[in-house]
Amino acid sequence: MKRVYFTRPLPESVADMARAYFDVEMRTENTPLKIGQMRAALNLYDGVLMMFGDTFSVEVFREAQNPRCKVLANYGVGINHIDLQAARSAGVMVTNVPGAVTDATADIGMTLIMMSARRAGEGERMVRAGEWPGWNPTQLLGTHVTGKTVGIIGMGRIGSAIAQRCHFGFDMKVLYWSRSEKDFAYPAERVRTLEELMARADFAVVAVPASAETHHLINDDALSHMAPTAHLINVARGDIVDEAALIRALKDRRIAGAGLDVYEHEPTVPNALKAMENAVLLPHMGTSTLEVREKMGRIAVENLQKALNGETPPNLVN
Ligand code: NAP
């Protein structure tokens, strides 16, 4: 039986499914693997089910010449923590789990839009602190979402699932900025520049993958085009947004609010952000429903199974 390593504890149903095919070792800690642990995993197992936080950088593969491990099955869609080229050179396939995460992450995007617009975090804190004086007509006045304009940065699976929710659920105008033109069953206008999107959107939603090209895409300059009534939402990866620039924009009230699921240096969240009432801060929970985490597991195990059976895995990315 092939030996497979899970780098974190996964739902039992996923582990049970994998045990039907492999000799599974499931780590009990929930911390990211250190470099030595990643090197050891490459040498000791035929396949590794790994995830966000396990940074398989070029250094990890440096001493791995044709390691025992033939496949890294990433438990997630974002793969910016894996050096795909180095993996390929070492003879290691990399797979991910697209599709499984789309709706859940889009739902968190909508949660952040609604919470930021309606000041829901602020309201909840007020109630819990026992500081709610009772209803009054000018209390916690937020921004109406229905009929507003959403601007999607990266109109892929998650971006278009958010756009669809905005159009059909909230009668919103949809703008998008992406590398290619898309065709949808609802009106969606492709804008030529990021600046135009930032200027016209009431809610600018980051849904582009992290890469060298998108690092700090949302910087001082991009933020400077937003209206003071607009909100920035990020459900993709933290380093796409220059966090220091965002903090400046929020502090100076150059934008109305931000809704974040991801951070530049996770799990560290700057104190400046934590102190701001106009920032909604979620702990990277885009895919965190039991059903979705089980589905991600099933797809990752299927990728492992195909790859270790000498077949091309369905979600090969390198
Ligand atoms: P996707 O389907 O590949 O969509 C990405 C979109 O971004 C595509 O439309 C692509 O444009 C566009 N794009 C890529 N690079 C670009 C660039 N340099 N400039 C402009 N547009 C660019 O990916 P997805 O499944 O929607 O996932 C997006 C990201 O969300 C993932 O990479 C992951 O990091 C993140 N994510 C976060 C969570 C969470 O828990 N918060 C959960 C899942 C995923 P074209 O279509 O024109 O090529």
Automatic annotation (TrEMBL):
- Record's Gene3D superfamilies? NAD(P)-binding Rossmann-like Domain
| EC number, UniProt record | 1.1.1.-
List each copy of the D-isomer specific 2-hydroxyacid dehydrogenase catalytic domain by range. Answer: 6-318
Highest rank taxon of the organism: Bacteria
Task: Locate the coiled-coil region(s) and give their ranges.
Answer: none
Question: Entry's InterPro entries?
Answer: D-isomer_2-hydroxyacid_DH, D-isomer_2_OHA_DH_cat_dom, D-isomer_DH_CS1, D-isomer_DH_NAD-bd, NAD(P)-bd_dom_sf
Sorted alphabetically, the keyword list is: Oxidoreductase
Show the SUPFAM superfamilies listed in the entry. Answer: Formate/glycerate dehydrogenase catalytic domain-like (SSF52283), NAD(P)-binding Rossmann-fold domains (SSF51735)
D-isomer specific 2-hydroxyacid dehydrogenase NAD-binding domain: which residues? 110-286
This entry's Gene Ontology molecular function terms read:
oxidoreductase activity
Keyword Oxidoreductase attributed: yes
Q: Does the keyword Oxidoreductase apply?
A: yes
Member of which family?
A: Belongs to the D-isomer specific 2-hydroxyacid dehydrogenase family.
Mind telling me what this protein is named?
D-glycerate dehydrogenase
